[in-house]
Amino acid sequence: MKWKQIVFTMAISVVTTLAVIWGYGTFIKKNNTYAGQLNGFMPANYKYAGLSEGNNAPGNTLDFTIPAEAATPAVVHIKTKTNAKQVNNNLPKKQPNNPFSDLFDDDMMSQLFGGRGRGVIPEQRASGSGVIISDDGYIVTNNHVVENADEITVTLSNKKTYKAKVIGTDAAYDLSVIKIEAAGLPFLIYGNSDDVKIGQWVLAIGYPLNLETTVTAGIVSAKARTLGLNKDKNGDARAGVESFIQTDAAVNMGNSGGALINTDGKLIGVNSAIASPTGYYSGYSYAIPVNIVKKVIDDLIKFGTVQRGFLGVSFVNASDYNDDEKKKQGIPLGAEGIYVSDVPTDGGAYEAGIRKGDILKKINGKEIYSGAEMQGLISRQKPGDKLPVTYLRNGKENTVQVTLKNKAGNYDIVKAEAVLESLGADFTTLDPKKARDYGVAGGVIVKRINEGALYDQTRMKDGFIILKVNDKEVKSVEEMKTAVGTNKTITISGFYPGYDGLYEYPISLEAQ
Q: Is the entire prediction scored with pTM above 0.85?
């Protein structure tokens, strides 16, 4: 009898094991898409490190070798060069000094068109880090790593070096996408920054202080931090988006744009800043949550600009004020949380019934305690998205559906091409041979000026060759599109073939 019981028990164990294996393969493995990033494909850097599906590193281990081995091949060293800037180009002086000298004297035209003395701003070089997010060469980094760079070089952990081009940038989020021409690259899998817990172990990977790949470890010490660092392209700090993950993993200059990963080797943030009185690591570092990164990167690749949804309120954190300050601000003494200080009538919040004096409690079902938390949730949405918003009024909770709008107060998708079109001209890339004849690296020819900003606001003539937009060198129409982006004000710099001097045209696109 005892022997029969043993055989019976073994049989049940075998059947159960097979059922579990079959169930895992059928229901779990097939549905694990890693937020659509992989479509079922596991990059080799995870397989070789032993982090294949279903074989993640234990969350409580203090041995970080496996996640570090998986992630380091997908973190790159970015080096940038900003060319020396000449106040005046060195084109040979031919015929008149400017193309309008038959109408005005040279001195007057120099004043009108920004003629300046000769001078040189020296060449500048810098370095940072980046994270490969696809096997065909898309890389995410900070905007401040590549901003205004004329040349970007990417070096992989295996020492291979590539030239990179900028796909899109957004200063408000301090994020940028660049691309190298390569295939079969290792890349990092997106994690979920909403699941990040205070106290959990994380690793920071990058190239600090111009060193080789460096891995540091620490814990998450806070979430939804705001530092007041980010500004939009026009320098407006109010439009900056910050909801940082704070860690005590050592991060220094050069780590910017590098990876913050969990112990499964998945990307949970992009390292962006440090808190330091000296410029070097002093205890805390800050990363942009990957759930924000994913949305921004997808928009930059697809549209060339971020499709940002706005709730339509001005607010203050009531808990930041003492009773005397609350009285001055007109905030009720017992108010805690996000106090609505103003509601523009053309915004989504006003249309949904939210008014000044309301206290916001939840966004999309998640409790919020600060403006940074609210900003972090809304920044993942686009115009036209509907979100349930819970607010407190006269001690009573109310929940309404708010349809987010864009900055212009509508639901339209904004594309970089549309802003370029508002200039009102036909553009073509300067032929490389012509560029060599002119002694320039490249540019964009204004073939014909039609109706638009150039016609309305400048005296630019057909044939003008654009060299820079907002002091950023452009060598093609595509580069010009990226440089113009969705800026509301731009300055176009260039020259007229056959005439001496660099001309600048400031342009406002607010009303276009």
A: no
